[in-house]
Amino acid sequence: MDRPAAPAPARRPRTRARLRAAVALAAVLPLAACGLRLETPPPVEPSPDALEQVRARTVADALDLAADADALAAVVPEGPERTVLLDVAAFSARHAEAAGGVYDSGLPDPAPTASASTSTTTTPAGAPDAATLLAELVDDAAVAADDADTVTDGPLARLVASVATSRDELADRLSAATALPRPAAGAAADGAPDGSADEADQATPGVTPGATASASSSPGGEAPGTGTAALVALALAHDEAAYGYEVVAARVSDDARARAVEAAARHRADANRWAATAGVAGRAGDPRRAAYALPGGLDDPAVLDDLVRRLESGVADAYAAAVAAAAPGSRADLVAGLRQAHAAAAARGAASVPFPGVPELATETLG
């Protein structure tokens, strides 16, 4: 019997070669992966969207104003000018805080370049003069008013409109304290509304320069994108102010009476205009009343002045609320109305506050 042939052992070396190749590949792959991770670029700062640009601009302008006012207050003697400067610094610091402060992504700062390190050796500029700070206030107020009109977020629009109004008032106060003429908004506010300073400068006790603010409303009683409920509340606030001024006019005489009558007529016209814009004029939903509650002691001139201040402040609050409810690009008249109502309240002795028209932030007076 023939013996079976022995199996050929030729495949074993090939199997061992494959095993060695697999082990080598397993060792190389982690090293390659490590190399890929090392070549990944570091994270970069995210690009700010339009909303963040408005917020950051509001903060940056506020911090610049605060720094300039602080520097100028340090070299100005006690008096009306220094009082205003301290308010500019304090109010602006509050504005920056309310807008969220300086953005910090948490990412490490990039390594300084040679040119950057060289630039840090420059001598800082001295304190600006009052005229320069006044121009900054006017320009920054105009920029903020424009941002309030166009920003897409309603609550931020309300805050920025309040900041614009505060800066506008501070500019008026600094102009009066220094006897410097208030300049027009400059190149920094190119294309922005000027805060309606001319109308506000005409404000006198008992007179509300509010008719001009809403005179440019769209024909046909339309205000695209504006919240109806907010406009109804605005019409009601104007109507209550008109009634209050009519009561005041009946209790004063001469020039004071003429101013109160004029203010009542202006508020009545604004109430009619906003009620028509909201679509409630002459309808069952019109909330305006024949009479409104009044405080006691109306024979006291101090009570009358306090009544007018409260009425104008109520109109300012209603304008600010309407700014928040309005669509971007449709708020210019509302922002101007906020400014003018606050100016009228200030003309009757209302305290200067950091956030006009925003009562939840304006309760703390400074200065």
TrEMBL record:
Highest taxon listed in the record's lineage: Bacteria
Pfam families noted in UniProt: DUF4439 (PF14530)
Signal in keyword set: yes
Signal peptide start and end residues: 1-32
Keyword Transcription regulation in annotation: no
Composition-biased stretches (Low complexity): 112-127, 181-195, 206-225
Positions of the UniProt region annotated as Disordered: 101-127, 181-225
Keyword field: Signal
Domain DUF4439 per the UniProt entry, residue ranges: 236-360
Protein name according to UniProt: DUF4439 domain-containing protein
Source organism: Cellulomonas shaoxiangyii
